[in-house]
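As agreed, record copied across for absentees:
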Amino acid sequence: MTYLNYWVEHPDRFRIVFLNEDRASSSDGFFINHANIAEEMLVFMGPLLQELMKSPDFSSVIIFLESLMCFVNGIALNVITISEYPWNNHEKYIDIFLDSTL
């Protein structure tokens, strides 16, 4: 929720990060390689990841987390870039996703 709320509260930052195509030919490399995203995510995801790593099927946990990230980015993309549509509260979409997958 925190991740999604950040983008919804800062739509211009979302556009800068996700609507500018990262290109391998850039001399600066990819944005994702320069951001401290993993480091920042560990601040609040660390304790959860420690528990999840105990799972006998850790690869499915990784797939779940990746799908959650894709889902959340998709919500932010739609809410921010298709603002003329009367979206519901963006947090409800995450609740539905989590309820159906967990």
